[in-house]
Model the fold of this input.
Amino acid sequence: MTQLVKNQALKAKQASFELASLKSQVKDDALNRAADLLEKQSKGILKENEKDLANAKGLTKTALDRLRLDEKRIESMVVALREIATLTDPIGEVVDGWVRPNGIKVSKIRVPLGVIGIVYENRPNVTSDAAGLCLKSSNAALLRGSSSAQNSNLAIVKVLRQALEETGVNPDAITLIEDTSYEAVKEMLGLKGIIDCVIPRGGPSLVSTVIENAKVPVIIDGDGNCHTYVDQSADIEMALKIVKNAKMQRPSVCNATETLVVHKKIAKKFLPLIQKELKGVEFVGDKVAQKLMPGIAQATPQDWATEFLDLKLAVKVVDSLDDAIEHIRKYSTGHSEAIITKDLISAQRFINEVDAAAVLVNASTRLVDGSELGLGAEIGISTQKLHARGPMGLRELTSVKFVIEGNGQIRT
Amino acid sequence: MTQLVKNQALKAKQASFELASLKSQVKDDALNRAADLLEKQSKGILKENEKDLANAKGLTKTALDRLRLDEKRIESMVVALREIATLTDPIGEVVDGWVRPNGIKVSKIRVPLGVIGIVYENRPNVTSDAAGLCLKSSNAALLRGSSSAQNSNLAIVKVLRQALEETGVNPDAITLIEDTSYEAVKEMLGLKGIIDCVIPRGGPSLVSTVIENAKVPVIIDGDGNCHTYVDQSADIEMALKIVKNAKMQRPSVCNATETLVVHKKIAKKFLPLIQKELKGVEFVGDKVAQKLMPGIAQATPQDWATEFLDLKLAVKVVDSLDDAIEHIRKYSTGHSEAIITKDLISAQRFINEVDAAAVLVNASTRLVDGSELGLGAEIGISTQKLHARGPMGLRELTSVKFVIEGNGQIRT
Done:
């Protein structure tokens, strides 16, 4: 059983060697061909997806929705692949270069990582999105979706591999792990020297399985327990608009705000207004917030640490910017943290002292996203500090290589 | 016992928050003050080092040599700290920046990692070198040396912390783990959210302990099973000079060449010459090499995979560049790989197809080193592909942060 995973990974590794020198044009042709074929063969894919939906038992409504494909969702996958084809190829970029006094020429060149393992849940669209980004960055994609979506994933990968074959690319560059057991994930996570990086795309339990078991390098696309801090000098209208957007525009995603931190000097005015503005939101708060927002429940210590992913907002009133920063340090998952302020010193201190992938001044945490920030397609948002931090585009799927060219230089 | 490690790490974390906004001038003052104090208090440090040497039992001669301090070695530590003070501060560097159509200003700013754990063996000089690099990059250094060097390390850290105090820096920015047990290392490796990165500096067993147990991100300063390939078109004189240097100039280090790969068309001429040139080197080889180099033993499969770190060289004769690349792929640890050739196509293929931190054309693998490449002081040579690859200077001890500045922007 496990040997099967390793064998598939070894084939992907072989493909990755070939990908490293593949011309951009060939990669783009393959991406566009994959888009064409997905469009043409959408009916077949939808049929396989129906099987998955019919088999789905015990899945929540949200999970079922994520599992479901339709013509529109397939069209989004098609558009994504075509967009990836238009992006600049990161491979071969000369990141830096110089000549040493002894005449050796040193360059740092952007190269692929090699084999990237993607472990994900339900959503079959991740199959083609992730494969597309890996292909464009000359990495082999070793995909391990959930068993619930396996029929859909197999159908999509079959189409993608057909596109690779038709354009002269080793089809093992896109490989779906056939074994959907939990053991297969653990096996993947131990394939040191074969898999160069694993990126989990899913909930906290998947992420923690990956952290606990990985012997291979990982990039964590972690939780977003995001805060918006309304400073005493904040523009009230702006704060209302931003907090509403950060909480309500799409509450189920990682860059939605989960806790509102408010300076006590503005709380009396601001909190009743926000309670009125955020219709349909359930508030929980500390004692001061409870006094100012009639009828709200007391926030438990657990609430401060919870990514609600729902129309629920915790409210904390603080005595100072220092207290706000301290609260955020204690509960932040290092994703996105915002301050609303008119005070320059407060803004500067917040930027410098809050440790997160993104810090925002007078803007909604919802803006922390590859496309909103202009990075092109993203494979996730890294909440770790090594290698990639924040929205990850094609460059974050690469490494560098020192190229040292001489004419006989030795060390003296 | 383990709570002690965590408590020390938490103090380092607190210090790391303060370091993040510390002015460059203050860091440089602290580094220079530390250098002065090390010089002044060298006698006391040497006395503590004598205790370690007296306690040392069962250490190899090499290990004893690494453990030993003298005035000259302390002077090297002093010089290193002063040099680090002269390097450009990487923190605050604007790595990238742009404005989005909706007016938000996006910048990527270089920030510290936070708390860097360094796990090392014997050499007490690592204590001050690593602490200096961490301080300059605004990271708290959480040092865990070996028990054999603990008296020396405590004495050095006491001096470094005195320098921090005298210059107004939180002394916990340089913290030596008091617990020198194996359990303390495992405890460190599990401190997710407190330690931001662990860098092991030591042999394969330390590195594998770190990989097996780390729940925190790691940067692996791994083995160097380096190859030099002599292509059929190589300049024989140049090849002799480079291979001699790569093997003999300092055989005990990671960038020394361990296997010589030779094209069959040049082997007959080259191998007898190299056997004569590398006096004192023990050769092992495949059958073809054995025929051409009288008296050498047959290389075992294990030999191809071994980093000898000694005056020993394995010799492999190949039929083609493809075979050379295949052999290197099979046995390379991804450190440094060299080709000696006059053929442009061979050079290009070697550069593109060999996957290592550094690939060299017509130069000695011994040149892969921070100071030789002009990167300034180095904390190690990364053999992983994520985050840092090759010689690691100050920049490799940093992360980035997205700073997003608006005036009320929301997501629509």
About this structure: The mean pLDDT of chain B is 95. Residues 204 and 223 of chain B are 7 Å apart (CA to CA).
